[in-house]
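Bit of a strange request maybe. I'm writing a small parser for structure token strings and I need a real example to test against, not something I typed by hand. Could someone generate the tokens for this chain?
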Amino acid sequence: MTQPSSGVLNVCVSSTLNWNPGDDFIRLGVRRLLQSTLRTRVNYFIWNRNPDFFLNPWSDCRMKEGFLSNSCSSEDLRYMDLFVFAGIPEWFGQPTEPLYREILSRRVPALFLGLGDGKDLGTLSKTEKRVLNSDFSLCLCRSVALAEQLRGEGVLNVRALPCPAVLCAPETAAAVQPPKGKIGFLLQTTDISCQNSQISFAEEFWRLPENPAQELLCSYIAEARQAASKGKRFRYSYAPEDYFDLYQHYDWIVTTRLHGAISALSAGVPAVLVRAEDNLRVKNAADLFRDVLPSCSSLGQALLTCEAADELAYRTLREKILRFKQAAFRAYQAPLGEFFKRHFPGN
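Reply from user aminoacidic:
Good idea to test on real output. This should exercise your parser:
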């Protein structure tokens, strides 16, 4: 059991910065959960899994040492009182090996929040399995399938809950707004090496006639660059928090990005997820949002979904989204409160 002697808890969050906005939305949701549950003062550190910090982004995922970024290095880990793995499929493997070693050597409490599918659990190392199977860890997955797989690996303290990204936006952003008569398209392209789409949804969007009621939102600077080169109007920000306000300009967000849809829901704006049928990673996470997040396989179908909702149905959906967010918050509070009570009784 860890008990910080200084009265301040040093928390290391495993996530990324300036890599994948989805990671940012998960991390923001996790922060809100921690801030609502922990009563003690907290110092937040980040273990930045941005591949720019790998020895080689595509072939050697071990973390560099001696970088100048304001992020944790291996030598900082010995000062941590709690480790938090904030979502995405890359929650084990080479980039996080130093964290697992530190957790196991000192039996540091570890939270795994919003874990996603996408990696073969058969590649889990002995150290990773020992941490996951320990009595000082808690795993809350965003996929029922992954939770079942982890139980098959002997992980008992695991359950499936909606991705914590649904809590990323402040409560004030979720208030029901009057209709705007506009749709925001948050799409992926096929030519961005780090986050390309499986199918050409963006190319389908490029072919749509210009419509002032439809606007493009870009998550990556490469997408903004591409939209600009095509003479398309678009909205973009490097700061994920800015999207909560951007979403409020639209009645709907149509997107191929799972966490684009979830962050829109967190901001109280209905979304339609456009996805490939065989993308199980996205499907498994979206299944826990099925009551508030319609999905389809084409932009045309997505537009029909938006058009089919009359004013009453639309308002009812927004109210349902708010209740869903509140229920997700309560669902996390119970296991987190028990975890902190057990490992930080002075909290």
